[in-house]
Amino acid sequence: MLYRFSSFTLDSTNYCLSNSERQLAIEPQVFDLLHYLVVNHGKVISRNELLDNVWAGRIVSDTTLSGHIKSVRKVLGDSGQQQSIIKTVHGRGYQFIQPVALEGDQTTAINVEPQIADNDTNGPLVAVLPFLNRSNDAEQQYFAEGVSEDIITELARFSDIQVVSRYSSFQLDSQAPTLDSFCAQQKVTYWVEGSVRKSENSVRVSVKLVDVSTRNTLWAEKYDKPLNDIFLIQDEIVETIVSTLSGQIQKVEMARANSRATCNLRAYDHLLRGLALHKNGYACQQSFNKASAEFRKAIALDPNFARARAWLICSSSNMWELMTEERINDALTQAKHALSLDSSESEIHRILGAIYLWARDFEQGNYHYQEARRLSPNDAHLAVKMGRFLAFTNRLEDALKLVRHAMLLNPLHPGWYWQELGVVYYSMGDYSQAITIFYRNWELGAYDLAFIAACHVANGDIEEANKVCRQALEEEPNASVKLFTQFENYQDESKSQQLIERMLAAGFPA
User: pTM for the complete prediction?
Assistant: First the structure.
């Protein structure tokens, strides 16, 4: 849709704002805020409504909201004193007061917003909310979240049950009003909620399965067990949910889902600590280093702990440095060893798929990604990473479908999902759409900017490419084309060389 007001045009399909045909730079979250105000022009929008619809109910401060309103006004040439476009209605909210003309649907544009498919044909959709930490020690929050994340992981193994990804479900709360709107929008059919109280030698887990449509509790249970029984408790929770929702799961699948990689509680505790650090480590190298240390502690306690070995490889490979052939071979050796310990762990197959992509062994990479998908068909993280692999092996339509599917499974996904979708559009040769998508990443970094610069070169806009290059180098002074492209191994080597040449043309050092 095109929304025209004053001298501005807001294109909601291609996520851009222009003023007299000149495209303006605008941050993704600021664009979303402006879009919501424009769509609801003339209406006074409360702070809570903005939080529900622009921030999906996430907790943000008044300062953040006010700062985004200020940014919207700035890009439009408005101000808090003039308020000629956005009016502050004290005590009530904000009002977009300019007349808005709507110019209809751009049917030729590609819609990148995820739409949840009809769950009647895809099985029930379950959201596992973060379990509450009932322990006296607030630092035990990682343990409570780890228990609920493990339940998500195990449920994702069943092909006839869809599970909302951890990233999305962990932003929800059973008492929050946003839960109802989220469940309605995403067509969630059931949610699981619970709590964990961990003491020195025992654990109490309370859990219940709720039917979204009726708010009826289908099943509830409370466990008071020795701490070492936490694995058995998780297995029983998964088994009960699966049998309640499906009843058709074969015993062999249940046996696979119930298998545990360790019975060592201390090793499991270090795994959960590492995962908590890794999940928050996309923009912080220090977090990856700490996570790796926790995974090593887990492996020291249980050398056969395949899952910890898999995550150690994953954290170690997130270093902002060059991967030598020796390091790639070492990662491959470690991953193969982890696989020999547990061939049913989908994360190991996913990591092997990535390593074989680095080594340009596309046949083996494809095998392991396919095996990972067979083991965990509803794992959003796996889906988006496999979509990237498919883009590099020229299965572009399949790549696009899979990354979009990941967004369906994880509707409140992290920003880097947009990065992966941007890589797919770049690979398809749709450079303008790729630029738009990369800018949707609210965690925008030097890597995204390098691809954006390459897109501008492909479009013949060298001046803009140079500008973006300078911005990337300000953020990451040690960046280089070799660093950016070391893992961008297209099966068609000419595409890899083309990407290198475009980044060089944009001004990045070799």
Answer: 0.58
